[in-house]
Design a protein that fits this description.
- With 118 residues, the protein is mostly helical.
- The chain contains seven helices and no strands.
- α5 packs antiparallel against α7.
């Protein structure tokens, strides 16, 4: 049952990433992106920053298998999981994001250069 939910969540990234989501990314709206300097990793970090840092990417894959390899994930790199939650609250639940946050909090504090290291 859990694997079906996780598969559905990974599939959800392909189904809900569309023009309306793209229109709300910081690049599209001109809004500033989240600051990267010396902060803890969390679901409030940009998806792209999380994917670019291997340990954070592993946490995402643990909780949402297949998410990082979804063909359309590039479209949401400028968003946070907290902001994506509004588009899929049944899949990106507070409980799931709390679990992701708990695992991300175990990672070393990130510095400005961490978001660009692969």
């Amino acid at each position: 049952m859990k694997s079906k939910k996780l598969a559905a969540l990974a599939a959800m990234f392909g189904s809900f990433i569309c023009t309306s989501v793209m229109a709300q990314t910081p690049a599209a709206t001109g809004a500033p992106t989240a600051k990267v300097e010396d902060s803890k990793w969390s679901s409030d970090a940009l998806v792209g920053d999380l994917l670019d840092y291997a340990p954070a990417k592993a946490v995402l894959e643990k909780h949402i298998p297949g998410m990082a390899t979804n063909d359309q994930i590039e479209m949401v790199r400028g968003m946070t999981f907290r902001s994506l939650q509004q588009f899929s609250p049944d899949q990106l639940t507070d409980d799931l994001l709390s679990k992701i946050d708990a695992d991300l909090a175990k990672l070393p504090q990130r510095a400005a250069s961490a978001a660009t290291s692969k």
